[in-house]
């Protein structure tokens, strides 16, 4: 049971190649996912990348699982890590290739021998029906609407880049905001599929900062889809230029916003380890 562990700015994933798990069912079970990702009882990670899988439209298919056993539609950091894994394993020779996720098809471009990767993430939409958001009244772009969480009122913007995001713009942000309000925003009734949460500070026309509470994973040091959604929201509000650097606790991601809010995301990937999971790992339930 081989595993390959990478991190993208401190957001770590374990890649499991289905070819190494022929005795398993079609995908790892939620219980298996939870124990593998557990920081004490397992290998430890912010999620599992299950692939490569067959795809009718792209060269590779990928499924992404959160530490709680739920499935994510898309992950920017996960896509960069999976791209590096394909490159490291010699499964691709052309540095540009396509990947299918449940959240859509993307194009990945290997740079610097896999240490830097650009992903064409698709386009961001702010439409309540696409995200989805249970807004009152007619479907619309969800921009600067009010939401009350615990003891505080916020203005939020909602977006999707294949997965849902709730972006809250504030003059100052910190990790405590994400830890305190993130879990309640993630599961708010407005978001029928739950949501990723970003607290956003705009520094200037080319730099933003975010703190992240990730759906199904909790507080994370970095997120590619969160960077994409937050940059797109800031640009939609007229606060930043099309080329934006997103600053996170784990490091920086470069975002280029094109026509129709199409997103090119560029960031680093580092390999951490590879090895074999022992069957004893699955003797405990978490």
Q: What's the topology here?
A:
Layout: E1 2-8, E2 11-16, H1 30-37, E3 48-53, E4 60-65, E5 71-72, H2 76-88, E6 96-101, E7 104-111, E8 116-123, E9 145-149, E10 152-160, E11 164-169, H3 175-186, E12 196-204, E13 207-214, E14 218-220, H4 224-236, E15 243-248, E16 251-257, E17 262-268, E18 270-276
Parallel strand pairs: 2-3, 4-6, 11-12, 13-15
Antiparallel strand pairs: 1-2, 1-18, 3-4, 4-5, 6-7, 7-8, 8-17, 9-10, 10-11, 12-13, 13-14, 15-16, 16-17
Description of the molecule:
With 286 residues, the protein is α+β, with helices and mostly antiparallel strands. It has 4 helices and 18 strands. It has helices at residues 30-37, 76-88, 175-186, 224-236, and strands spanning 2-8, 11-16, 48-53, 60-65, 71-72, 96-101, 104-111, 116-123, 145-149, 152-160, 164-169, 196-204, 207-214, 218-220, 243-248, 251-257, 262-268, 270-276. It has an 18-stranded mixed beta sheet that branches. It is globular, with a radius of gyration of 18 Å. The relative contact order is 0.17.
Q: Which key phrases capture this entry?
A:
286 residues; alpha+beta; Diaminopimelate Epimerase, Chain A, domain 1; 2 domains; 18-stranded mixed beta sheet
By CATH, the topology of the largest domain is Diaminopimelate Epimerase, Chain A, domain 1
Instruction: Give the class from helix and strand content and strand pairing.
Output: alpha+beta
**SS summary, helix count:** 4
CATH superfamily name of the largest domain? Diaminopimelate Epimerase, Chain A, domain 1
Can you tell me the residue ranges where pLDDT is under 50 for at least 5 consecutive residues? none
Mean pLDDT: 96
Domain tally: 2
Q: In one word, what is the shape? A: globular
CATH architecture of the largest domain: Roll
| Helix percentage | 10-25%
Number of extended strands: 18
Rg result: 18 Å
What's the N-to-C terminus distance? 19 Å
Sheet bearing the most strands, described?
A: 18 strands, mixed
Strand content bin: 35-45%
CATH top level of the largest domain is Alpha Beta
The ordered string of helix (H) and strand (E) elements is: EEHEEEHEEEEEEHEEEHEEEE
């Amino acid at each position: 049971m081989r595993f390959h562990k990478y991190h993208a700015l401190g957001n770590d994933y374990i890649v499991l190649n289905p070819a190494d798990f022929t005795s398993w069912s079609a995908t790892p079970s939620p219980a298996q996912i939870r124990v593998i990702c557990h920081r004490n009882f397992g290998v430890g990670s912010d999620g599992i990348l299950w692939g490569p899988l067959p795809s009718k439209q792209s060269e590779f298919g990928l499924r992404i699982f959160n530490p709680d056993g739920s499935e994510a539609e898309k992950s920017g950091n996960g896509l960069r890590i999976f791209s590096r894994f394909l490159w490291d394993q010699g499964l691709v020779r052309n540095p540009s290739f396509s990947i299918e996720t449940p959240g859509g098809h993307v194009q990945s471009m290997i740079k610097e021998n896999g240490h830097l990767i650009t992903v064409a993430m698709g386009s961001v939409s702010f439409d309540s029906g696409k995200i989805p958001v249970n807004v009152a009244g007619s479907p619309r772009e969800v921009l600067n609407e009010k939401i009350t969480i615990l003891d505080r009122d916020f203005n939020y913007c909602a977006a999707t880049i294949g997965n849902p995001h709730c972006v809250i713009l504030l003059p100052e942000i910190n990790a405590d905001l994400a830890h305190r309000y993130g879990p309640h925003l993630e599961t708010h009734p407005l978001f029928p599929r739950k949501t990723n949460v970003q607290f956003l500070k705009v520094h200037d026309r080319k730099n933003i900062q975010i703190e992240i509470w990730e759906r199904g994973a909790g507080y994370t040091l970095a997120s590619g889809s969160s960077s994409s959604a937050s940059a797109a929201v800031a640009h939609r509000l007229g606060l930043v230029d099309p080329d934006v650097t997103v600053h996170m606790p784990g490091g920086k991601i470069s975002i280029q916003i094109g026509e129709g809010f199409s997103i090119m995301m560029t960031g680093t990937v580092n390999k951490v380890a590879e090895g074999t999971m022992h069957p004893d790992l699955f003797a405990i339930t978490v």
